C-alpha cells in the first residue's frame, strides 16, 4: 500500500506554533517515526499554496491520500472540487478538534467529498487515517 500525506498552509510550523493546540513535536519528526512504525510506503508533501496542493492531489498515483488542508479546509472550493474529481480516495484529517475552535472552523468544504474525516486526536489523527486505509 502506498499512501500520501498532504499538509496545507502553516502546518510546516507544527512544533513551533500554538503548542497547546498542535503539540511540541515537529511534523517531520513525527512523520519519520510514523514511517518506521507503520512499515508502509508513505510519502509526505506540504505546501502553503492552494494550487500546488491541487496539482499534487491531481497527480497522485497513491492508493490513498490523507489530507490536512489547514485553513483551506474552510475556504477552498477548488480543493473540494479536486477531491471530488480525483479517483484516489481522500481522508480528511485535522490535529485539533475543529468543533471546539472558532465557529468559522466548524465548516469544512472538504468533508462532504472525502471518504471520511478524523479530527481532534492530535498527531494520532494521521495514525488513525493510515489504519483506516490498511483495514479497508
Spans of at least 5 consecutive residues with low confidence? none
Going by helix content, strand content and strand pairing, the class is alpha/beta
* Biggest β-sheet: strands ordered side by side in the sheet: 2-1-3-4-5
In total, the number of strands is: 5
CATH class: Alpha Beta
Q: Overall 3D geometry?
A: globular
The biggest beta sheet, please?
5 strands, parallel
- From the 3D structure, determine the CATH topology: Rossmann fold
- Mean of residue pLDDT values: 92
Please, how many domains? Answer: 1
Q: What is the helical fraction, as a range of percent?
A: 25-40%
Give me a quick take on this structure.
By secondary structure, the protein is an alpha/beta fold.
Can you tag this structure with a few keywords?
single chain, 136 residues, Rossmann fold, 5-stranded parallel sheet, 35% helix
Amino acid at each position: 500500500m502506498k499512501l500520501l500525506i498532504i499538509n496545507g498552509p502553516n502546518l510546516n510550523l507544527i512544533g513551533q506554533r500554538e503548542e497547546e493546540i498542535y503539540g511540541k513535536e515537529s511534523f517531520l519528526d513525527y512523520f519519520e517515526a510514523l514511517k518506521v512504525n507503520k512499515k508502509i510506503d508513505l510519502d509526505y508533501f506540504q505546501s502553503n499554496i492552494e494550487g500546488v496542493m491541487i496539482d499534487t492531489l491531481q497527480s497522485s498515483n497513491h492508493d490513498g491520500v490523507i489530507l490536512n488542508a489547514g485553513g483551506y479546509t474552510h475556504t477552498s472550493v477548488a480543493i473540494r472540487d479536486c477531491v471530488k474529481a480525483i479517483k484516489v480516495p481522500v481522508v480528511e484529517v485535522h490535529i485539533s478538534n475543529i468543533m471546539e475552535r472558532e465557529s468559522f472552523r466548524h465548516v469544512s468544504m472538504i468533508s462532504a467529498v472525502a471518504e471520511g474525516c478524523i479530527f481532534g486526536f492530535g498527531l494520532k489523527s494521521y495514525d488513525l487515517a493510515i489504519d483506516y486505509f490498511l483495514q479497508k
